[in-house]
Each structure stands twice: as structure tokens, then as C-alpha cells.
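I'd like us to work through together how a protein chain folds, taking it slowly. To get us started, please write out a protein record for me. Go ahead whenever you are ready, and we will take it from there:
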Amino acid sequence: MKKNVYLAIISVLIISCDNGDAPPETANVAPTIPTLASPVNNKLCINNSVSFEWNASTDANNDAVVYQIQIAKDKDFANIVMSGGSSATYQNFTLEKATAYYWRVKSIDSKGLSSNYSSIFSFYTSGVGVINYLPFLPDLVAPELNALVNPTALQLRWTASDVDVKDKLVYDVYFGTTNPPVNKIGDDLTNSTLDVVITGAKEYFWKVVVKDDKGGTTIGQTWRFRTN
């Protein structure tokens, strides 16, 4: 009888020790978002053989990290021309000359968990005999893409840039309820804002055409928002 009691006590102690000694399970955390370094935003690359560099991510679990880079001809990355994966914080690619490109990078840990993509940088590759470079695609400021807004007066806002920094930019704005918008409501605007009047329960589409003073024209993508 005493032997059985001793065995029971020992079993309880072993179970208690096992439970107490079990290390807590650490949840996997995605690595941090890489920050882009080179080529810098809105850069004119003299050579079409381009070296891309970014700062390393950190991983709270000390997992090994690899990076995925994407290079596209549009800011939505629907037209990706180059991509690659590596544990290094740089990649080299040969691209077309006299072309605008957009690039971004994300980090992925050894367990498959990835960060969000970095911010998007743009650059132009130099072309032989090219005198004027087209403006970059415009950037949306407000209203946010697919936003739901109140039916009242609204200000459309955007930004644009040109690697030819001395070029003066003007804007044509197309706006309406058809996709793509065909109604031009702003012509050769010098400001990157435009006030519009909207009504309720509709979906609106708009785009900006950026023009420089040397005849260069860049057609922006179509943006949209809805009203209550």
C-alpha cells in the first residue's frame, strides 16, 4: 500500500515538473519592412545596368530572412518586368533604356511569413540621344482609392514629378461616372488640385494626364471612389 502511495506521489511530482519546465511557445513575427536605398526616388540612372540596394530587415525570432524585389513599368505592379529573391540586400538588373521604372522590396522569413512591401521608388534609365524625359506617373493624394465619401463639394488632389526637374508641369483631369472617365473637366491646370461637385450613391472615376513644357505626356491610372 505504501509503495503504491509513493509511486502516485512521484508520478504527480514528475507531471508537475514536466508542465512547469515546458518553455512557452513563441509566436512567429514577420520581419520588418525593408527601406530602399538606391537608386533613390525620382533618380535618372545614367546606365541601364542598374544596381538596386536596400537596408536589411530585422526578425524578432532571429529567423533567416530573404528578400523579394519587383521592378515594374507601372505603380500598380501589373506590368512587372523583373523580379528576384535573395538573402543579399542588393540585386543587379539590365533594363531598357529611356524608360520609367518603379521598384519595391519585401522580406520573408524562413517560416514563410513576409513583411509588407516597402514604399515605391521611381527612376528613369538614360537613353542615347534623349533630350526630354516624360513625367512620372501621378501619385494619388485624395480622396483615397475606393474611399467612401459624403455627397458634397470635394477636392481632388494629386502630386507629380519629372526627372527633368526644370520642366514645368501642367495637368488635364478627366472625371465622371464611366470607367475610364472621358469627360475632361480640367485643362492645362498649373495646380495639382481641382474642386468637383458630386452626388450621392454613385461611383466616380478620375485620372490625371501630366504634361511637361517640352511636349512630354504621361497618362495616369484611373482612380475611383464612391459616395454615400
